[in-house]
Each structure stands twice: as C-alpha cells, then as structure tokens.
C-alpha cells in the first residue's frame, strides 16, 4: 500500500521538475518509460547500449559549482528537496492516519469490553431494577458503536445466534464469557499484526528515504537518458562562461580533445568564416540576457563549410547576473542546402512562370501583330492595284488636252495618288521587314554604278536648283556583293529625303571604306590623284586591248558606240594629262595588289549629306520611328509618309549595319550608314588581266569601274517648264540638269536604266542618222511644251534627245532648238570623225549596226502607231491561266508565245526578240524574278553569263538570234510581272528585279489591255 | 418568242445568277464569257473542262502527298498554288478561297487542318463542277431548242 502510494508523488514531481530538462517531443514516451520502470529496469534497458566514454566531456567540478551558483542549479536542488520533504510529509500523514485507525479500533475493542461488562451489570441490575444506569455515556458510545458494529455485524449476529440457546443459564454465561474472550484474543492478534505492519512500514520507509540516494538515482537516470538521446544526435551542447570560455562541452563527433576546448573561446579554437559571428552572437545574448537562436554558416579549416543552428541561452547567477551561456548547436548544413535549393528552385519556377506568362503574352501579341501585319499587307496590296489603275489613268488623262484648271486638279490628283502609292509601298516594305519575309539577296554589284544611278534618278526628278554629287573613294572595291536592290532603296530614300528638305546648296553621297564598323568620316572630296589613277588604269586597259575594244564597239548599239567614242576622246586627254603628271601605271598595279590582299568582308560607309533645313536636336530620337515627322508643320509643308527613314533603318539593320544621323539646324544633315559587303576576290584579281576583254565589252562598266566622282549641276530652268505647270510631265521628261562628268558621253547609256518605261520607244531612235529628225522633233516638242502639254510621243523624243542623242540634253532644251540642232550635228560630226579614226573593222560594224537600227526604227518618229505585230511572250506554268490569257490576247488581236517556266523564258529570249514579256512570278524550275534578272543582265552586258551561271546552257549559235544580233541585244524588253499575292512576290520586288510593271492575278481583260496599251505602242 | 424558250432562258439566267450570288463564281467568269465569241464558241466549256481535269489531278496528287509519312509541304504548297491560280482564272471564287485557307495551313504545316481543307476543296470543286454542268446542260438544251444564250450583264 505504501509502495503504491509512493508512485503518485513521484509522477507529480517529474511533471513539475523535469520538463525543462527533457526535449518536449520525447517526454511522453521516454518520460513514462523512465519514470514508471524501476531504476533497475532503466539500467537494463541501457545495458546493451555502450556509451562511448570519450563522447562525454564533463567538468564535474564546474557542474557542481553551476548547480550551486546558478539559478537553475538552485531551483533544481530546491525542487529535489521539496520533493523529498513532500514525500516525508506524506509518509507521516499516512502513518498518522494508520495510527488513528488503529487507535479507533482499540477504542472499539475497549468499548466492546465495557459493553460486555455492562451487559453483565444490566443483567444483574435487571434482576434488581430495570433501569439502565449509564445514560450519559450511552449516547456517546452510540456514536462509536455504529462503526464497529457495522464492521463486525456478522460476528455479532453469530454471537447472538450462538448464544440464543439457553438464555440466562450458567452455561449460557459461561459460553458467553468464553466467546467474548475469544473475540478479545482475536482483537489483540489483530492489534499485534497491525503493530507489526506499522513497524515494517516504518522500517521500509527508513530504508528508502535517503534523499541523496534518491537524488543521485534521478541524476543517474537523467544522465542515462541524456546519453541515450544524445549519443547519436548531431548536436553540440556546451556551456561557456561570461568570457565565453568553454566550461562544458558535449560533442558527439569531437575533432578536438577535451583539453583543447575547455577553457578556450571559439576564436581560440578555430578560425574562419562564421567564427567571429558566432562569438559576437553569443556575446550579444550574454549582454541582452535573452535567449536567441541563429543560423551561422561556418567555413573553418577544422570542419569545412557547415551551417549550424545555434541556440544560446544566458545563464544567471542567483543574484540575477549573467555568468555565462548555455549553447546548443545543430549541424543543419544539409537542411540549409536543401532549403536554399528549394528557394532557388522556387525562385526559378517563379521566374520561369513569369517568363512563360510573358512569353505567352508576347506570343499572343506577336501573333496578333503578325496577323494584323499580314492583313495590312494584304489590304495594301489590294488597295495598290486599283490605285495604280487610278493613277495611271490619271496620267493618261494628263496627256490629253486640258485647260489650266483641269490640269491643276489633275496634278493634285496625281500627287495624292502618288503619295498613297508611296505610303502603301512603304507599309508593305515595313511589314515585310518586320515579319521577316524580307529576304536579302547577295548579288555582285558595283557601288559606283549604284551611286551614280541613284543620283541620276534623283536628278531626273529634281525640281529645285541643287547640285547633286557623289564621291566614291578609291579604296571602295569595284565590285562587291550585297543586296543591291535594298541598298539602292536606302540610298534613293535618303537622297530623296535630303532633296526634299534642301532648298539650296547641294546634296551628295560619299562612299568610302571604313576599317571597322565605325563612323569615321574621311575627306569629302576625293583626291585628284584617285581620279587620275583610275582613268590611267582604264586607259591602260584600253590601250593594250584596243582590238577587243573595237570588236566590242561593233557589238554595240549605235548610241553606245558613239558614247564610247566620246568617252575615248575624254579618256585619251586624261591619259595624256596623267602621263604629264608622271602618274605611272605602276601605281595602278600597286593599288591593285592592295586590293588583292584585302579581306573578304569590307565595311563601306555611306554618307548622304545635304545643306538643308537640318533636324532639331529634340527630333533626333524619334527620327527613325514609324510615322514620325519632325513636326506637324513639317508634315504639312513637306508631305511624306513618315515611313521612309524607318524603312531605311530597318533595312540597314537587317543587312547587319547601322544608320546614324548628325545634323545641325539650318545647316544640314548627314545620314550615315555602314554596311558590310563581301568582296569577291576573283573579280579583283581579274581586273587587270583575264577579264579585260569582257570589261571592254561592257562599255558602261568600263568607266563605272573606276570613276569616283559624279556631279549633277543645277540648271536654271526657263519659264519654258514652269509655265507648263505640270510637274509630273517634267518628271517624265529627262533630267533637267547639266550632267558634267569626266566621262560625259557614256553616261547617256545609263539613263536608259533610269527611265525604263520610255526606253522601248527611245532606243530605236537612237542612231546618229536619226539625229536630224530627232532634232526636228525636239524643236516641235519644245514648242509644244510652251503651249500645251506634250503628248506621250513628244516626251519620247525629248527623252531621246536628252538621254541618247544629245549628251547635254538639258542645255539643249534651255537653248533654242536651232542651237540644239547645231549641237547635235556637231556631236554627230565628232562621232563620224572618231569612227573614221577607228580601225576599219569597227567602222564597218558601226555602219552595219547603224543601218540595222535605222531599219528597225523607221516610222517611229512619225507617230505613236503600234508596230504591226508585236511579239509577246507569256511565261506561265498554269495551263488554265495560259488558256485564259491567250484567249484574251486573241481578243486583243495579238498572238503570243507561251513557255512554262523561267528557264524556258530565258531560252525563248535567246532565240527571239520580244516586244513584251508577261512573266508569272511564282513558277517551278526558275521563277520569274530570276528569269528577269538573267534577261536584264543579258541586256546590260550583251552576254548570257548569268544564264550560264544559272545552269541554262547557251543555245547553239545558229538558233540563237540574240547572241548574234547586237542591235537587239541592248534593247530593254518590257517585262510585266503577273503576281498572285502581296508578301511573297510584291510589286516592289518585281520592280527591283528589273520588271517594268505588274498585273495582279487573275489577269483580267481590262488589265491586260491597259498593259498592252502602255507597253506596245 | 417561244414561251418554252423564254422559260429555258430564264432558268439558265437563274442558274447562272445563283452561281454568282452564292459566291461560287466571280467576275472573272464573266470575263471568260466575254471572251467567248463566234471565233471561239466553246471557249468556256473547254477552259472549264481543262480546269476540272487539271484540278482532279491536283486533288489526287494532294491526297497522295498528304497521305505520305513525311508530308512534302512544299510540294503541297506548289500544287495549291497551281489550283489557286487556275481557279482564280476561271473565277471559281470559293475554290480560290478554299485554296488560300489550305495554303495558309500548309505553310503552318498543320496536317489535320490541311486534310480538312483538302476535303473542303474537293467539295467546293464538286459543287462548282455540278453547278457548271447544270449550267452547260441548260445551255446545250437552250441552243438545241434554237434559243440563244442571253447576254446577262451584272444584274444580280
């Protein structure tokens, strides 16, 4: 019973005392186990577990001190003492209770005894009287009587039953006395047993109640428990005094011996990252007196990079002073690593999600934009075709007799139409670049030619008094590879922009090589020696290969022959001059060698400068933005779509270059773009050797090859043109500028490229023999222009006059027609003279070609009547389209040849001369664009090299008409594209590839008719 | 005029107009009609017949092309381009439109949509074919009965 009771207070005590000692989560199990089981059982449990001694580093002395001096220690002891006292008190209370019970029992027994005695007395008294003498005590005894009676009810009744036998006899009394004696005996026995038990209990209690023993047992159990728990726990437990010297440390994986640690601080023990931090943290806790937790990453020589979660709790003395800290560290390196990894992953995930969202958004936007662009492009294309119809009709209308007011209205109509067309073309261009449809082509071209053509074209439509000039530095290769069409587009755009914003002064192009894509500017005007050198080189080639030149001259059209002659004249003069200046041929050779060693990519910088109104600084940032113009005022004044520069920039960037601008208001602007070009080394090498014959054949190429300077001087127009009132008519006319180049005459041939639409009619007029009649016509035209608008016919003649026959066409125009004629005659005479000086073979060739050209061109001058049977070629792969177009042609009274692809088209052109080619763009084998390029290349060079390169073998010479017909070889046959959709085969691309016009599919009767009317007059 | 003939003429006109109204044909077909004259009396029938022969070949090619393991979308595109060109030349508007949709999916390399488009294209071709056959049949009857084909100008 005592043992049982003992259990409760211990449990109570444990709950009160130990919580701070046990880790919370294991308290239930381990605590119960620990507490319920006897100490011996506890040891049994740990018997198997060997606790390695070295793990335990204990400073017992210190521990004792700690328990004595610290609050915790004191409270711990106080608890233990209290517990012991409590238990003692409890035991005393129990004993007292027991004693009480015993004494009560004894009283009972005594009472019984008295009762029995009294009964006897009552019985005796009954004899004497029936009064009960004890009345006072009766009540008192009654209280006591109840309990024992209840307890020994049975005994009493038994007693009664036994006694019932013979009442009031001696035997009865005897029996009764005996019985009572027995009861008394039993009672005494019981009393004795109880006394014994009590004694035993007291003894037991004495045996157990030693406080020291109990305490040490508890401590032992705690110690065992701690070892059991801590033996594999990755925790370091320590106590450090207020100097942060270790006084106690428990470390399951010690790398240091006890003596290395005790009495030292962290800093004494190890060095490295985190040590100082932990030291400071501990000090902080020490100072603040509040426990704290922190994660500290160590990187020490001792145990490498590890992260510890450290809990530091201050330890107070009884006076409340901090005397040290309890320190507990746990290696959480892996957890930290995982946590950081998780965080990183989470972060990455978030970033990725964000990106994905962004991407989806962008994708959606891009898709939408693309769709919108496609739509815009389609729309634009759809708008362009009818608009082109409107504009061309208006143009035709402009040729009819109109009164002044009508003409003005028409003019507005045309310029608006042109603007809309330009806008649509720009939009199409932009959308092509932006949608990535725009493909760059790598074609060989001559930068000088490009610059010259661009300037020429600009000069042609010039309506201001401006000087246009071009400088191509000597170091610019003769031939480079790039997308000439786009470069031309950029140049044209920039030049027309420059002209638009320049009212006086000049507009020009500088072309020079830059070492890297930087924008260093070289001198604007090329040194004279460059020009000289180039001409000397040219002359050298000419001199050496005079026979081939003369051969070439016989191949040329009369006009070109003449140009060449004129060119020669100039050239020789220069050549002599060069000699006088001691410019030797060696310099040219040296220069060529330099060219040979140049790397394959060359960066050419192009400046387009003007002396115009300039650009205010605040407008520069938005200059290249779409639909941006410097100001609304400018937009009103100068018009334009605001797309030109945006397109230029995009194109330049597409080609891997960059476009920049520098400008000063009221002084001028310079747009500069740097582009990389490939240089074909074969071309450079062959310049002075193998290719000479070929080069000599390209009469126009010869001078372009090395010419570095072009100028188009302003020409003061008389009232002749301004009174005319139609700027458009002027535009259609040839350049109203004087063209003063070193090689004046041979430029003329180039004009044909600038005005392709007029050439067809023009060239046939171009023989010297026609000069007189042309001059007559010119006279007429000049007169006509004074009064009313010229008819298309007159325009042609004027064109001829300026572009072909008269090398100083504009002058001619400004002067009276009679002087014009005289000049023409003079020119003719010169030609004749030169022709005579040529070797006989060449002369013959010339005469022959002249004659042939005369025969073909007869009757043209008289009027715009169409030729009897124009030869038309249809290049189309779709049978149905062929059938329909053929039928339409038949209706229009024409027959035509039909071929099914580009290769066949080229072959057909090799065999026959056509007056018009209708070319489908999208075809198998070879598309229309390539076929056109090949045909154009033939027209320009007179050879089929391009065709051979494309894999089309030359037709045998007896079949070939064009390879032997020099008169026709130079003709530019109008090629009309037939396009089906906007983006892939745009009209721009058609134009850029040398086509003259386009009809959108399906080809309707009206479109075809219009086209034939335009090109087959 | 013979009422029977007039009725036939009206039926022809109705049939023809419905072709335009339903968007099966467009102005281009009118162009063809204008191209047909005494010198070239069977022009339309010939052209249309050529168109259908050509189309059927192309459709067959397209089916075999799209049935292949590795669909040659370029070849498919080229064929659609052909069909688009010829259909627009005879004015078969809905066929042209079907071709455009088809070509877009072809360029997007969307096989399922391509197959759907091909089916649609075929249906459109069959539709225009049956309609035109009806029209030509009416025309033949009309001519056989001694009537003339009315010159219907764009009156729908």
Automatic annotation (TrEMBL), chain A:
InterPro entries: CheY-like_superfamily, HATPase_C_sf, HATPase_dom, His_kinase_dom, HisK_dim/P_dom, HisK_dim/P_sf, PAS-like_dom_sf, Sig_transdc_His_kin-like_C. The modification 4-aspartylphosphate is found at residue 920. It catalyses: ATP + protein L-histidine = ADP + protein N-phospho-L-histidine. Residues 522-564, 803-870 are annotated as: Disordered. Keywords: Coiled coil, Kinase, Phosphoprotein, Transferase. Residues 378-679 form the Histidine kinase domain. Residues 92-119 form a coiled coil. Its EC number is 2.7.13.3. The keyword Hydrolase does not apply. Pfam families: HATPase_c, HisKA, Response_reg. Residues 871-1016 form the Response regulatory domain. Residues 522-531 have a biased composition (Basic and acidic residues). It comes from the Eukaryota. Residues 546-561, 849-858 have a biased composition (Low complexity). One of its GO terms (molecular function) is kinase activity. This is histidine kinase. It comes from Rhodamnia argentea. The gene is LOC115731160.
UniProtKB/TrEMBL annotation, chain B:
Residues 40-142 form the HPt domain. It holds the Pfam family Hpt. This is Histidine-containing phosphotransfer protein. Histidine-containing phosphotransfer domain (HPt) contains an active histidine that mediates the phosphotransfer. It comes from Rhodamnia argentea. Functions as a two-component phosphorelay mediators between cytokinin sensor histidine kinases and response regulators (B-type ARRs). Plays an important role in propagating cytokinin signal transduction. One of its GO terms (molecular function) is protein histidine kinase binding. GO terms for biological process: cytokinin-activated signaling pathway; phosphorelay signal transduction system. Keywords: Acetylation, Cytokinin signaling pathway, Cytoplasm, Nucleus, Phosphoprotein, Two-component regulatory system. The modification Phosphohistidine is found at residue 81. It is found in: Cytoplasm, Cytosol; Nucleus.
């Amino acid at each position: 019973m005592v043992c049982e009771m003992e259990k409760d207070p211990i449990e109570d005590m444990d709950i009160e005392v130990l919580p701070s000692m046990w880790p919370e989560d294991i308290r239930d199990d381990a605590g119960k186990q620990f507490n319920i089981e006897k100490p011996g059982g506890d040891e049994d449990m740990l018997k198997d577990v060997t606790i390695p001694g070295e793990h335990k580093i204990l400073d017992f002395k210190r521990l004792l001190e700690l328990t004595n001096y610290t609050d915790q220690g004191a409270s711990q002891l106080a608890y233990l003492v209290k517990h012991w006292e409590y238990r003692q008190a409890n035991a005393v209370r129990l004993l007292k209770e027991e004693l009480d019970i015993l004494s009560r029992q004894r009283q009972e027994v005594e009472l019984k005894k008295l009762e029995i005695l009294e009964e006897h007395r009552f019985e005796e008294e009954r004899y004497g009287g029936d009064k009960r003498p004890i009345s006072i005590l009766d009540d008192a005894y009654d209280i006591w009587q109840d309990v024992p009676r209840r307890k020994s009810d049975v005994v009493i009744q038994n007693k009664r039953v036994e006694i019932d036998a013979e009442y009031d006899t001696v035997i009865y009394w005897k029996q009764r006395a005996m019985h009572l004696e027995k009861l008394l005996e039993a009672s005494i026995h019981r009393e004795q047993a109880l006394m014994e038990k009590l004694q035993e209990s007291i003894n037991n209690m004495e045996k157990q109640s030693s406080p020291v023993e109990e305490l040490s047992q508890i401590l032992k159990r705690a110690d065992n428990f701690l070892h059991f728990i801590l033996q594999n726990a990755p925790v370091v437990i320590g106590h450090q005094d207020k100097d942060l010297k270790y006084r106690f440390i428990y470390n399951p994986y010690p790398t240091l011996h006890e003596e290395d640690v005790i009495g030292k601080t962290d800093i004494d023990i190890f060095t490295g990252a985190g040590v100082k931090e932990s030291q400071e943290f501990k000090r902080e806790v020490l100072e603040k007196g509040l426990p704290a937790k922190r994660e500290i990453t160590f990187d020490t020589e001792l145990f490498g990079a590890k992260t510890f979660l450290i809990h530091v709790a201050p330890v107070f003395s009884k006076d409340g002073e901090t005397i040290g800290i309890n320190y507990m560290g746990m290696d959480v390196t892996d957890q930290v690593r995982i946590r950081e990894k998780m965080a990183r992953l989470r972060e990455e995930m978030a970033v990725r999600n964000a990106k994905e969202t962004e991407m989806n958004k962008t994708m959606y936007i891009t898709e939408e934009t693309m769709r919108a662009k496609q739509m815009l492009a389609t729309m634009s294309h759809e708008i362009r075709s009818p608009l082109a119809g409107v504009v061309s009709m208006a143009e035709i209308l402009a040729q009819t007799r109109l009164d002044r007011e009508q003409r003005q209205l028409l003019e507005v109509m045309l310029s608006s139409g042109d603007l809309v067309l330009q806008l649509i073309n720009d939009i199409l261009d932009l959308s092509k670049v932006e949608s990535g449809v725009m493909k760059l082509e790598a074609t060989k071209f001559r930068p000088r030619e490009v610059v010259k053509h661009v300037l020429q074209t600009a000069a042609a439509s010039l309506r201001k008094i401006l000087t246009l000039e071009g400088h191509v530095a000597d170091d610019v290769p003769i031939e480079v590879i790039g997308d000439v069409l786009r470069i031309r587009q950029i140049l044209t755009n920039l030049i027309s922009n420059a002209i638009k914003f320049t009212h006086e002064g000049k507009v020009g192009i500088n072309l020079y090589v830059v070492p890297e894509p930087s924008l260093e500017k070289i001198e604007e005007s090329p040194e004279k020696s460059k020009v000289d050198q180039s001409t000397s080189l040219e002359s050298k080639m000419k001199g050496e290969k005079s026979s081939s030149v003369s051969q070439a001259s016989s191949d040329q059209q009369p006009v070109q022959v003449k140009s060449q002659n004129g060119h020669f004249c100039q050239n020789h003069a220069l050549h002599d001059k060069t000699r006088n200046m001691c410019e030797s041929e060696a310099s040219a050779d040296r220069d060529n060698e330099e060219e040979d060693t140049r790397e394959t990519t060359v960066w050419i910088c192009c400046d387009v400068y003007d002396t115009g109104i300039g650009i205010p600084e605040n407008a520069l940032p938005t200059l290249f933005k779409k639909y941006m113009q410097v100001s609304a005022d400018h937009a009103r004044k100068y018009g334009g779509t605001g797309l030109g520069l945006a397109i230029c920039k995009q194109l330049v960037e597409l080609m891997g270059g960059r476009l920049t601008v520098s400008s000063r208001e009221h002084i001028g602007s310079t747009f500069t773009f740097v582009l990389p070009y490939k240089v074909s080394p074969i071309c450079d090498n062959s310049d002075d050797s193998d290719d000479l014959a070929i080069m000599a054949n390209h009469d126009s190429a010869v001078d372009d090859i090395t010419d570095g300077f072009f100028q188009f001087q302003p020409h003061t127009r008389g009232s002749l043109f301004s009174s005319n009132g139609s700027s458009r008519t002027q535009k259609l006319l040839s350049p109203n500028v004087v063209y003063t180049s070193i090689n004046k005459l041979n430029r003329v041939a180039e004009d044909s490229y600038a005005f392709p639409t007029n050439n067809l009619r023009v060239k046939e007029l171009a023989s010297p023999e026609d000069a007189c009649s042309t001059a007559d016509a010119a006279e007429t035209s000049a007169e006509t222009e004074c009064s009313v608008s010229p008819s298309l016919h007159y325009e042609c003649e004027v064109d001829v006059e300026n572009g072909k026959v008269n090398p100083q066409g504009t002058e001619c125009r400004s002067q009276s027609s009679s002087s014009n004629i005289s000049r023409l005659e003079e020119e003719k005479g010169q030609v004749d003279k030169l022709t005579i000086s040529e070797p006989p073979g060449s002369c013959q060739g010339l005469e022959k070609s002249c004659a042939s050209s005369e025969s073909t061109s007869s009757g043209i001058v008289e009027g715009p009547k169409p030729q009897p049977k124009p030869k038309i070629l249809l290049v189309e792969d779709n049978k149905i389209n062929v059938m329909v177009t053929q039928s339409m042609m038949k209706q229009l009274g024409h027959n035509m040849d039909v071929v099914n692809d580009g290769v066949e088209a080229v072959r057909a052109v090799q065999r026959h001369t056509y007056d018009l080619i209708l070319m489908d763009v999208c075809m198998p084998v070879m598309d229309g664009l390539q076929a056109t390029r090949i045909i154009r290349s033939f027209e320009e060079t007179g050879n089929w090299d391009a065709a051979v390169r494309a894999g089309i073998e030359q037709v045998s010479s007896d079949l070939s008409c064009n390879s032997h017909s020099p008169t026709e070889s130079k003709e530019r046959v109008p090629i009309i594209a037939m396009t089906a959709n906007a983006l892939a085969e745009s009209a721009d691309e058609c134009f850029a590839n040398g086509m003259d016009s386009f009809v959108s599919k399906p080809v309707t009767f009206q479109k075809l008719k219009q086209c034939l009317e335009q090109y087959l007059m | 005029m013979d009422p029977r003939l007039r009725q036939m003429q009206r039926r022809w006109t109705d049939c023809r107009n419905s072709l335009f109204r339903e968007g099966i044909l467009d102005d281009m077909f009118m162009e063809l009609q204008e191209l047909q004259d005494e010198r070239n009396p069977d022009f339309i029938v010939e052209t249309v017949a050529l168109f259908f022969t050509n189309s059927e070949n192309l459709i067959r090619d397209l089916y075999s092309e799209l049935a292949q393991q590795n669909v040659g979308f370029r070849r498919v595109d080229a064929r659609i381009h052909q069909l688009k060109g010829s259909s627009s030349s005879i004015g078969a508007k809905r066929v042209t439109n079907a071709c455009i949709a088809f070509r877009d999916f072809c360029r997007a390399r969307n096989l399922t949509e391509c197959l759907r488009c091909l089916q649609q294209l075929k249906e459109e071709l069959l539709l225009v074919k049956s309609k035109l056959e009806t029209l030509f049949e009416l025309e033949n009857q009309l001519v056989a009965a001694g009537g003339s084909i009315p010159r219907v100008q764009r009156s729908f």
